[in-house]
Amino acid sequence: MPASFILKNSYPDFPEGTVHILSVNNDSQKDADPLIMYYDRQYFIASDNGALFPIFDQQQGQEIEEPRIYRISRSKDKIKSVFLFTFGELACRIIQGEPLDTIGRKTHNFQKMYLPSPICMEDSIIGTVLYKDSFGNLVTNISYQLFLKRSKNKKRIEIPVGEQLALTTIYQNYSDVDTGEILALFNSMGLLELSQNMGDISLLYPSIERGKIRIDFFDE
After folding, report:
1. CA–CA distance, 16 with 201 (Å, rounded to integer)
2. Fewer CB in a 10 Å sphere around the end CB: N or C, the chain?
3. Which helix (H) or strand (E) holds 92?
4. Tell me: the pLDDT tens digits for 4-15?
5. Considering the entire predicted model, what is its pTM?
6. Measured between alpha carbons, how far is residue 78 from residues 71, 74, 81, 89, 108 in Å?
7. Do residues 95 and 137 share a domain?
8. How far apart are the C-alpha atoms of 39 and 66, rounded to whole Å?
9. Same-domain status, 84 and 141
10. Is residue 166 predicted with pLDDT exceeding 50?
11. CA–CA dist 216, 156 (Å, integer)
């Protein structure tokens, strides 16, 4: 899931025609055919394990063509390493301009993996940590748009962190709090992030990395 999340949010920064290779746990999925997806003027190569689906799923408000996905059949005896042989060879053929319909067979039948969606209750949003970045920040699936919608006409919020701490403010920058303090903010992707300024929040609260994140809204 983290690999699909990272690629979904980073590929728009790459130029048209970029070939992305998504290779995760392929040694344990030797029977999965490789797929090539052409989407938003870029190419994506991955095994048929569901990892491609989140990249184009739920792209709301964007006028982007439907993805074209091609399945590549391969011989189990001929190819031992999916990444070194198949993925590299496919990338070279794409870069050299070979049409996708001569590389593989167009398909609408492929594995689908869904990124979890936040759950909206009457006075709360329950989200999930999707990704921990290299700085130890925990990125959730709660968007700024959803937060604005649910917090309308509410007086205050609380975000429980562990048993003793509840955050009551959404900050703009990490530097808005003192070094070592815990904070919540919306990152450049527009997603709620829990962080420790100049630290790793998961070392202090390891349970939240694997659990749910809740925002409670109060009328007074």
Report:
1. 37
2. C
3. helix 88-95
4. 888 998 999 999
5. 0.79
6. 17, 8, 9, 13, 26
7. no
8. 7
9. no
10. yes
11. 8
